[in-house]
């Protein structure tokens, strides 16, 4: 299973060190070539790839942090606050997960156009700050992790609802919020369709749109495209090396809570 998971990444690196002819040859070459530095330099010369990496980092970080905090707020409200229509509203949130995301593209684009945000990074950030799955995820963790008696005691001591959330509830579910934020970061980094629709200027491209710009309308240089794809994947691999253990711990903690 490890081999099946890692081999596509290895094959992408092999192709990024060769050319299109080598990539499509039979039998296939399984050893890296010596063309990676040339193709990497060609990627940076063809498109503003460094700028695209920076744009993706800004967008993905904002979405990851936003989902971790805002979905935790909503999950806390649905799990621990009592208000009229709570169950109905939560059901509506859950039902939105059954609606394909592609159906929201046209109204979403119209909203961004009315705001004058087309071809801006905030058009990518704002729609991704909260997700129905994130609210559901944090609501389940809040329900299973936080004891109501603890919140009642804090209320008796004079804590406000915001203080109860930020000083008691959120620290208890911080591993789950970290996992959710990491998922949001990766999804935003890999997103192609919405940035492809809303971004027009090369200096605002995200990394996935920059990879698309490496291809012309007639053919695809597989070596160049795979070199760009490998450079775009490399930051995620580095991120996983540093936070992979915390990611697994957060998922396992959520699996065994309650």
UniProtKB/TrEMBL annotation:
Q: What is this protein called?
A: Sugar ABC transporter permease
The UniProt keywords, alphabetically, are: Cell membrane, Membrane, Signal, Transmembrane, Transmembrane helix, Transport
UniProt lists the family membership as follows: Belongs to the binding-protein-dependent transport system permease family.
SUPFAM superfamilies recorded: MetI-like
Among the Pfam families in the record, one is BPD_transp_1
What does the UniProt entry say about where the protein is found? Cell membrane
Where is it predominantly found?
Answer: membrane
Q: Which residues cross the membrane?
A: 57-77, 89-110, 116-137, 164-186, 222-243
Q: Does the keyword Transmembrane helix apply?
A: yes
**Membrane topology, from the record:** Multi-pass membrane protein
**Signal peptide range:** 1-23
> Does NAD appear among the keywords?
no
Q: Supply the InterPro entries for this chain.
A: MetI-like, MetI-like_sf
Cite the ABC transmembrane type-1 domain residue spans from the record: 53-243
